[in-house]
Amino acid sequence: MATDAVVVKRSAGRRLAGLFHGRRRLQIGSLLAAPMAWLVILYLGSLVVLLITAFWTVNPLSGTVIKEFSLENFEELVNVPVYREIVWRTVRTAILVTFTDAIIAFPIAFYMAKIAGRKTKALLVVAVLMPLWASYLVKIIAWRAILAEHGVLNWALSPLGLHGPGEGVTSVWLVMSYLWLPYMVLPIFAGLERIPDSLISASEDLGAHPLTTFRRVVLPLSFPAVVAGSIFTFSLTLGDYLAPKLVSNEQFIGTSIFDSITNNQPFAAAFALVPIVVVIAYLGVARKLGAFEHV
Amino acid sequence: MRLSKRAKIILRACVGLALTFIYIPLLVILVEAFNSSRILKWPPPSFTFHWFGQAVESESAREALVTSIEAGAVAMLIAVVLGTLISLAVGRRHFFGRDTISFLVVLPIALPGIVTGVAFSNTFTQVLGISLSLMTVIIGHATFCIVVVYNNVVARLRRSSGSFEEASADLGADPWQTFRWVTFPSLRSALGAGALLAFALSFDEIIVTNFTIGAGEETLPIWIYHNLFRPKELPIVPAVAVILILLSIIPVYLAHRLSSDDGGLTPGRGAAARASAPAAIAEAEATAAH
Amino acid sequence: MRREKDRHAARTAWFVVAGLVAFMLVLAGCGGGSSTSGGSTGSGGGGGEELQKLGKGEGELNLISWAGYVEPEWVKPFEGESGCKVNDKVAGTSDEMVKLMETGQYDGVSASGNATARLWAAHEVAPVNVSLVPNYKTVFADLKGQPYNTFEGKPYGIPHGRGANLLMWNKNDVTPPPSSWEITLNPKVAAKYSGHITQYDDPMSIAEGALYLMNHEKSLGIENPYELNEEQFDAAVELMKEQKPNVGEYWSSAEQQIEGFANGSNQVGTTWQYQYFALKGENEPVEASPASQGFLPKEGATGWSDTWMISAHAKHPNCMYMWMNYIISPKANAEVAEFFGEAPAQEKACEHTKNPNFCSEYHAEEPAFWKRVWYWQTPLSECSEGGETDCMNYNDWVRAWTEIKG
To answer: Which of B153, B155, B234, C346 is 20 to 30 A from C318 (CA-CA)?
Structure first.
């Protein structure tokens, strides 16, 4: 162990030697060797295995994987209408959650970044972050208790003669919006923080109405941050399976993958390629918009 | 920004509403933790401290907490080492393939957890023939934690210039000395924030964990998951959650210290340690796009 | 300039991916040969050899069970006398049990009839040497040598107990008390409770639809709700699809359903004895078909007969044998049966139940009663009668279940 440590130390030293002197390629190579081995072989490799597994099938009785090339899983995904339905439902929910979070998050982030005093700002940051420390599952349980027939929501609404949404797509939308809200607030906050106050003052001094300043200065400059946050809300909604399982009876991409992994791993792998494609397409669109460059 | 009184009032109302939305479920948890019924009922028939006693005494919960801390700590260490190495390579220089690397670092957190989970469990069990264990969980966690360390460190490297290192080298320091006495001190708080964030991400992770954990092992989120499905003692879960929130004051405080350590940064920056996960993507993407 | 760079990056990325694909293909190819678990023979099933002689306990035992089968009340004494520390994993569905067994990390499982054949076919379970399980002798005769626990003439497990899936309702919401499954399955009747019906989230639920049709649509000619030809199957699936808009929750864990009934979201649906008694214990206003109706709605019910099976890869086989013998010992089997609310497998358990009438209430000793209970079984292409092969198999059931849920 001790000698290992020495070796690590020395090699680290040697690598750093490369940082400042000598041949660049070698320096970069030696710094990157370990992390790239990890990310490329272990992670990308696993994704490739996923891709390969997607072409396998299972024995219907035993569930044993048959490692022979077949397009069966993809044919099923494309041909059985229910899967298209599930994908569309999930993507729709993900988009809806993203918009909801952006709408809720922007005012609070704007207030934190541009209006609140130093102390209020610090307090608000902690207030927004706090729920992240409560376990994700526990928050879903809380929502179950809220949305239940005899739950908090109906208890609060009944004096008004109203009735909550119960469990369904609406509740999934509500719970997901709740769970991922901080992931939207914080990048927008950070993005707004980076807009120099002088720019806003300049707009105001030139006689722009606050709304105009907001529309022409603040919004365009903070838009990339909104997109950054949206990657989270979108991707997290796309892959979640516990929230839909616990607060609705609807199937989403995540729940379908989860259900099929127990008896048909290759099919689960094929289905998992769907969110990969969707997320990469989403990243591509976001990048085309040039949205990331100024964050 | 100068706003009219009315605009300010509207804005405050929005903030108030958003905070209400954020806090109502947490309040529900707090109330349910004192619920005397074995089932989560609303409103609770009466109140009791019983579940807190159960939570503190629960051996399985304690074991799960220790497991979670272990997994988080090891995943964090791996992420710190790998993330720092990448940022040192990428941080101050442009080279061929750099964009690809940034993208690769971001990918594990941008793709849904279920994909990472399925991919790893497939590879481990079907191809490599490794049985699932805490080790496989750690591998999964470390993979998506690299990005947060990378992001924090790379951002710091970009902000500081390389002139101190050059000066140090010119003054005859060997590279290790330069790293130890010049580079490292300037990175320390960024590393700390990244590490803390990595730990936090690992600590609450359940989706990848659920797919990669071995028989008979429980991290805390898995323990909660199991207790959801193990009847008769459900309110122990909110009680544990309340204890966890209280314990989280420690990392929040640490984060705050790290941020004040930072000097010129905004007050929220360090405390917002977890926020840099989304920011990480943006930042790395920005790198990729340049 | 930027374009150029992007293109370079893209090309590198593709090279990396292509190389990886090649590398992984090789790896996967190698893995293919070695990683098929259990026995390597293609036909038949089962794996490993039966234990010949009981040795000393290994100190540990990893089990997969249904909720309520492995509880401290009877596990503690077992740990004390055997020295085997029990780690239990509760599974919500048979699919999950099969999956968990495939990890090879568990010693045994309390499998229902829809898992046993699959576990056997996957070479995941080993035959049981019943001479090493003395309590097996006094297990009810009609539980031994059944198609779901005996393969190629060899016993592959120890019967644990049996029961019917119940129809449960909240008596404040559902009046008059239902005596037929039509309350959840006949769309006209079920509409009254729309959004508050609960159904077990498992392909096996299709058999409930088939059982209903067996009684109400005699022209379909269904004789066994698990052996359905295409026409019968489509009719059952159609019925379940019509049920879907009325379903509030497809439950996949006992606790989820207990909570659903307790907080009012669920009002009527299929359940297990376990949830029923747990809710009763909390003084919730739930009711199930009364003893006077034999606990069954008039159509009868689907049900299960569970079997403790030993893994072909068990690391603690001696402890597993001790457990199998222990769990059907008169006292322990009585405890678990009463706790869960099922008919015990052990004849002598009837002398140890706290409720002296328990066995008669649960019809433990009446083989005729169990004729109306259709134990879960794995649907196979080969129908048992006449060796026809036009039945829908489990894969069809799984796919249909996904479509039913929409």
So the answer is: C346
- A249 min Cα distance to partner chain B (Å): 17
B129 contact residues in C (CB cutoff 8 A): 31, 34-35
Greater pLDDT, C319 or C275: C319
Chain C residue numbers touching A67 (CB-CB < 8 A): 28, 31-32
Q: Looking at the domain covering B51-289, what would its CATH class be?
A: mainly alpha
pLDDT, residue C352, reads 94
C-alpha to C-alpha distances, C28 to A63, A70, A257, C21, nearest whole angstrom:
18, 15, 22, 10
Give per-10-residue mean pLDDT for chain A (295 aa): 45 50 69 90 93 88 82 92 94 96 95 90 85 86 88 88 81 95 89 88 87 88 88 90 89 91 86 92 76 42
- Kindly report whether the peptide bond that precedes residue A60 is cis, defined as omega within 30 degrees of 0: no
- What does the pLDDT look like over C105-142, one tens digit per residue? 899 999 999 899 889 988 999 999 999 999 999 999 99
Do B131 and C92 make contact, defined as CB atoms within 8 angstroms?
Answer: no
* Stretch B219-247: mean pLDDT: 82
The total number of structural domains that make up chain C: 2
State the average pLDDT over residues C157-168.
Answer: 93
**Judgement on whether residues C152 and C220 belong to the same structural domain of the protein:** no
Distance CA B253, CA C388 (A): 70
Instruction: Enumerate neighbours of B (3 or more CB pairs within 8 A).
Output: A, C
Residue C320 lies in a domain: yes
Report all structural domains of chain A as residue ranges with CATH numbers, in order of start: 2-53 (no CATH), 76-288 (1.10.3720.10)
A229 touches B at CB < 8 Å: yes
Task: Select from C391, C366, C396 the least CA-distant residue to C380.
Answer: C391
* Entry pTM: 0.82
ipTM: 0.82
Distance between C27 CA and the closest CA of chain A, angstroms = 9
What pLDDT, on a 0 to 100 scale, did the predictor assign at position C16? Answer: 60
B94 contact C CB<8A: no
Neighbouring C-beta atoms of residue C182, cutoff 10 Å: 18
Indicate if C171 and C263 belong to the same structural domain.
yes
Q: Which of B100, B123, B210, B228 to mutate to test the interface with C (most CBs of C within 10 A)?
A: B100
Q: What pLDDT score was predicted for residue C23?
A: 61
- Whether the CA torsion B118, B122, B125, B131 is positive or negative: it is negative
Please compute the mean of the pLDDT values over residues C291-320 and round it to a whole number: 91
Domain interval for residue C266: 166-271+380-405
Chain B CB contacts of A21 under 8 Å are 169, 175
Which residues are CB-contacts of C242 (< 8 A; sequence separation ≥ 6)? C187
Q: How confident is the model at residue B186 (pLDDT cuts 50, 70, 90)?
A: confident
Query: Does the beta-carbon distance from A167 to C248 stay under 8 Å?
Result: yes
- Who's near B221: CB < 8 A, 6+ residues apart? A135, A136, A137, B68, B204, B205, B206, B209
CA distance A210 to chain C (A): 37
Contact, C265 vs C248, CB < 8 A? Answer: yes
